[in-house]
Amino acid sequence: MPTPMPALGMLGVLVTRPEPGASETARRLAALGWRPVLAPALVLAPRPLAAMPRAQAILLTSRAAARALPRDWFPASLPVLAVGEATAAEARARGFADVRPASGDAQALAALAAATLDPAAGPLLLAVGVGYGLDLAASLRARGFRVIRRIAYAAAPAAALPPEAIAAVHQGVIAAALFFSPKSAQSALALLRTAGLAATAPGIRALAISPRVAQLLAALPWRQVQVAARPDQDSLLELLGPAVTHE
Questions:
Q1: How confident is the model at residue 147 (pLDDT cuts 50, 70, 90)?
Q2: What is the pLDDT of residues 15-67, one digit of tens each?
Q3: In what order do the strands lie in the sheet with 205-208?
Q4: Dihedral of the CA atoms 213, 215, 217, 218 (nearest 10)?
Q5: What local confidence, expressed as pLDDT, does residue 67 receive?
Q6: If both were cysteines, with which of 17, 102, 114, 234 could 180 make a disulfide (CB 3.0 to 4.6 Å apart)?
Q7: Which pTM does this prediction carry?
Q8: Is the pLDDT assigned to residue 149 strictly greater than 70?
Q9: Alpha-carbon distance values, 27 to 10, 72, 140 (Å)
Q10: Triad 44, 89, 59: Cα angle to 5°
Q11: Helices within the chain (DSSP H only)
């Protein structure tokens, strides 16, 4: 189903998360009355996986990891611990029956594993993207777990911002920009600089999903940098609120 788009004269919100999440966010923004402007800063691609070892549970740090797992390699009853509710929903959609969401970050995921799993019951399979999950694996090992870390996908910087996004920023119609992860925020800042758009930052609210993302955003002089109360999309959109219509 195509993403509904408000009238082009409405204020826009720059969406820097990669697809397919960017289109989902766009639908949420349109429902709030904003004009979503897609500017994915990363490109996700699944990585080929070798046969998976036996594990007592799967740990997922992102929806991309859930989508990249070969579903027919695992019994539906295998426990899945997800970093947050959106990742948990993706795992359920792929047929897993015992899915347990944490409260949105790696620290919460490690705490959930410690509270619900037994290190003596077998290893944990940690499915992540390239460069992700190292701190989480170390935290779990410090709690006595054996962790098998497997790369399920790669996240590469986008080559450039879409022409529609560049035009919208140049025209001064972007009221806010949404940033969902440290890696996508770093890439988005680089893309804005490459496109010659860094000077437009003082007119844009930067909304960060976590304090770590907000720290990275400090590299540009945004009109305002705000941090979501919880590390999830709902909290990020709460910061934005519905669009205000001016007569």
A1: very high
A2: 999 998 899 999 999 999 999 999 999 999 888 777 677 899 999 998 889 98
A3: 35-38, 12-15, 174-179, 205-208, 224-227
A4: 170
A5: 87
A6: 17
A7: 0.79
A8: yes
A9: 15, 31, 36
A10: 70
A11: 21-31, 63-68, 85-93, 106-116, 134-142, 163-170, 182-194, 211-217, 233-240
Which pLDDT score, from 0 to 100, does residue 245 have? 58
Q: Tell how far CA 148 is from the center of its chain.
A: 23
End-to-end CA distance of the chain: 31
Q: Is the dihedral of CA 152, 27, 36, 217 positive or negative?
A: negative
C-alpha Rg value of the chain to the nearest Å: 19
The answer to whether 188 and 41 are in contact (CB under 8 A) is yes
CA dist 194 to 109, 188, 197, Å?
36, 10, 8
pLDDT interval class at 131 (50, 70, 90): confident
Domains of the chain in start order, with CATH, are 12-41+159-240 (3.40.50.10090), 45-155 (3.40.50.10090)
- Residue 25, Cα to own-chain centre: how many angstroms? 11
**Structure token pair of residue 209:** 């999903």
| Segment 169-179 mean pLDDT | 96
Opening angle at CA 209, ends 203 and 213, nearest 5: 75
- Cα–Cα distance for residue pair 102/113, rounded to 1 Å: 9
17 vs 25, 113, 148, CA distance in Å? 9, 27, 27
Alpha-carbon span 141 to 147, nearest angstrom: 7
